[in-house]
Amino acid sequence: MAEIVINGLIEGGKATGGPPFGPALGPLGVNVTSIINEINAKTKAFEGMKIAVKVSVDPLTKSFTVEVGSPSTSALILKELGIAKGAKTKDEVAGNITIEQVKKIAKQKEASLYGNSVADRVKQVLGTCKSMNITCEGVSAVEMIKKIDSGEVKL
Q1: According to the model, what pLDDT value does residue 49 have?
Q2: Rounded mean pLDDT of 77-88?
Q3: 105 and 77 in contact (C-beta within 8 Å)?
Q4: N or C, where is the chain less crowded by C-beta within 10 Å?
C-alpha cells in the first residue's frame, strides 16, 4: 500500500488531535498523540503564525514523517515587528524594521527566496515590506533597496 500524505495548516505549536490531522490520522491506526507532539515541537518557533505541515504515514509499518513548511515572508515581518497586519492605506506606515531584522528574515527564508546573494534576498524581503507599507531604518523600502544597490548600505 502506498504512503498516505495529509497536509494541513496549523498555528505554530498548537496542533491538536482535532482537525485537520486527528480525524485523518485516527483511521490509520497510528499513534496520533506522538505525531501531534512532533508537529508541535517542530512548529514551536512559529508560534502565532499559520504554518503548512505535511504528515506522511506508511500504513503497513505505522511509521511517519513530519515536514514543516516555511511561514510567508509577510508573516515573519509581522512577527518581527510585533504587529497584527500591514498598512490599510498607502499613506499609513505600518511599522519600521531594521536592516538586521530584514537580514534575519532573509536568512529564515533562504531556501524559498530566489536571490543568489544575501543582498538579493534582503531586497526581496524589502519588496514585501514595500507592499505592506513598512519602512526600513526610517526610509521607504524602495529607498533602502536603492541604498543597497548603490553600496551605501553594506550587507
Answers
A1: 84
A2: 89
A3: yes
A4: N
Q: Are 86 and 74 in contact (CB under 8 A)?
A: yes
Pick the CATH number of 4-68 from 3.30.1550.10, 3.40.50.1460, 3.40.50.2300, 3.40.190.10: 3.30.1550.10
Identify which of 55, 52, 84 has the alpha carbon closest to the alpha carbon of residue 71: 52
Domain boundaries, the chain: 4-68, 73-150
- Which CATH code for domain 73-150? 1.10.10.250
Average pLDDT of the residues in 45-51: 84
Alpha-carbon torsion angle 87, 111, 46, 76, nearest 10: -20
Q: Quote the pLDDT of residue 50.
A: 85
Kindly give, in sequence order, each residue whose CB lies less than 8 Å from that of residue 137, ignoring residues fewer than 6 positions away. Answer: 96, 97, 98, 99, 144
With 90 as the cut, is the pLDDT of residue 116 above it? no
- Examine the pLDDT at 1 and tell me if it is beyond 80: no
| Type of residue at 101 | Q
Nearest to 94 by CA among 130, 142, 123: 130
Q: Are 3 and 14 in contact (CB under 8 A)?
A: no
> Residue 50: helix, strand or coil by DSSP?
strand
